[in-house]
Structure formats: structure tokens, C-alpha cells
Write the C-alpha cells for this entry.
Amino acid sequence: MSRWLIKLCGDNFDLEEFPRWFPDGDIFSFEENGSVYLSGPAFESHEEFSKIQDMALQVIYEFSAVISLLCPGHRRPADFEVIKETDDGKHERYIPASTIATIRSKVKAVPVVGGQGLEELSITQGQVLLSGAIDNYHLRTALALWGDPIKTWPRLYRILEDIERYLGQHVNKSGLCSAKQRERFARSANCAEVSGKDARHAAGKFNSPNEPMILTEACGFISNILMETLNNAAK
């Protein structure tokens, strides 16, 4: 039976996380002969290489964003190759994909759980987190922003805002953190004396909090809130 295969290119230390967190579903990952691939029935709805390439890119971005929540330091695959496996097991390789960081796509990836309820599947934490984001624009945006390897104060604050747009209230009101924690984060992000050139406002406009957050602490703060929100959304 013919199928589309997406061969991931990158460090094995990062690639091995794909089969671990996304082993089955409409789109899944597996390891074969030392290489890591994406495949699944969702790809079979397309015959055009360009459609497969766009879908693969979107899935890689979303899978990597989730993995980076579960495994801090994870690096998105550097590139990928689209392969058509024919009925007789032969591989037809298509034009090599452009560098993954430069391709842009607006294709909406399909949920990885194949239309089945979460309670019907024995799924991984990665699949749970992704399923929590699939049906909400703000959570999908927050996850996509988190997946960007460059973490800045404005980017982190934007993630917080999208989460709160989804919740309809501040994260502390939803029990995801204390009011003090949210205030420390917000004031640190706003204050140029704390966040430097990435501050959301000019120097002198906001006073520094008594206990300012550093960027690494802010990343942990937003990561925990995003994970908890996605977990709750998947229930």
C-alpha cells in the first residue's frame, strides 16, 4: 500500500522525541533504520507534493512546539524530505524541501487523535497538549508563538494575552498562578530597567517590581501556564 513519508532532518537527540510523543493518530511519527519519519492517513487525502509539503511543515511546527514544552531545549528539525512510498516498497523522492525556517504555510493541521475521544485512546502527554490547542485560535497562536526558538519579553507577553483571551480573564483568576506572580511577570516585561531593549515600554514609564523576573524565569512561568491551559482545554 502506497503512503507519504516525511523524513525529518536534524539531531537525533531532538528527532527521537517525535515518536515518543506522537506514536499514532491521523499523523504520527516512527523510527526506521535510524531515521525518523512522519506519516499517517491525513497525508493520504492529498496527491500534490506542494500540499504534502505545506501540511508537513505545519505539523512539524506544532509537534515541535509541544515537544519544547515537555523537553526544554528541544530544537525543531532543520529540514525535511517528502517521499512517496509505492505499493512495491520503492521510494520516490520529491524535490528537496526548502530550509524549514523559511517556508510559510496557512494550512491547518488535523488533530492527531483521529476523531476519537481522548478517553477512547491511550495517548501521550504530547498528544493531549496538541489536542487542547487544535480547536481554539488563541491557544493555537499561543502554542505557535511558544514554538519559536527565540524567546523575548514581547513574545512571552503575547502568549499570556492569547491565553487570557481564551480564558476570558486573567490567569490568576483562573487559578493558574497567583496575582503576585502575574504582576511580577507583567511589570518585569513592561519595565525597560528589567527587560532591557525588549521591554514593552520606554524606560521610566513603569517602576521595576520589588522582585523582578529574569527572562529564564519568565519562560518557565509562561511554559507552566501554557501547559496547564492546554491540559485543561483537552479535558
